[in-house]
Design brief:
By secondary structure, the protein is an alpha/beta fold. The protein contains six helices and 13 strands. The strands form three sheets. Strands 4-1-5-6-13-12-11-8-9 form a nine-stranded mixed beta sheet, with helices on both faces. Strands 2-3 form a two-stranded antiparallel ribbon.
């Protein structure tokens, strides 16, 4: 059967210069779609659209990856803005939260990566720590550190050992959203992965950047779940 189609949300840059062009751009680092392809899926990019179009767009794909990027606006979880929180990415916030809601409503397999994990938590009513000190070892550079799986979770079944992961972030999950459980954490207690524990639904978020790694286990599991969904008689 055809490879499952995995939608990947995009970064949105107000101005990107390449060649003679200097224009607003929606893009994604190549590592995202390369990881989907290495895991056996086909990738399609999902640039921002009207939030009301989210369910229609989700009906055309078999799985969803919400990519990394800027801070989620604290207005979406009822918090005052910390001075260290980045500028709002209003269009992207609205689109990705709508996609996540539509994906959860339709049981579309979901993987949130870094910002995507935080957005997943917010979409389910959770909150974020707007700034953590000392977790990213080298400001401005990707750092690596171990994450420890929580036994009994989907993530632990996929990656049972403490794994070194590439990470770059200054925010983290605070109060968990509805139904979510922690499935991995760092040595300092920072939440590193969250998931819905329902075995019939594939919903997982990781705080690190698997697109910068060679480990395909998590993405392969998403692609497998998307394949199962695509081949079901009802298409759901």
């Amino acid at each position: 059967m055809p490879r499952p189609l995995i939608g990947i949300t995009t970064y949105v840059e107000e101005s990107t210069r390449y060649g003679v062009w200097d224009v607003p751009t929606s893009l994604v680092p190549s590592g995202y779609y390369e990881l989907v392809q290495a895991a056996g899926g086909s990738a399609v990019l999902l640039p921002p659209d009207e939030p009301g179009a989210a369910a229609e767009v989700l009906s055309r794909v078999d799985g969803l990856v919400v990519a990394g990027g800027p801070d989620v606006d604290p207005v979406h979880y009822g918090a005052a803005r910390d001075p260290r929180t980045g500028a709002p990415a209003t269009v992207r916030d609205q689109w990705e939260l709508a996609l996540l809601t539509a994906a959860l409503d339709s049981d579309t397999p979901v993987l949130g990566i870094c910002r995507g994990m935080q957005a997943l938590n917010v979409a389910l009513g959770g909150t974020l720590i707007q700034h953590i000190d000392g977790h990213v070892d080298t400001p401005g550079l990707m750092s690596w550190h171990p994450v420890h799986p929580v036994p009994g979770t989907r993530y632990a079944a996929l990656v049972p050992e403490a794994a070194q992961v590439p990470t770059y972030h200054h925010q983290a999950v605070d109060r968990l959203g509805r139904g979510l459980v922690v499935s991995a954490h760092a040595a300092d207690g920072t939440v590193e992965a969250i998931e819905l524990p329902d075995p019939e639904r594939w919903v997982l978020g990781v705080q690190w950047h698997p697109e910068r790694d060679k480990d395909t286990r998590v993405m392969s599991s998403l692609v497998e779940a998307a394949t199962t969904r695509a081949s079901s008689p009802a298409g759901v």
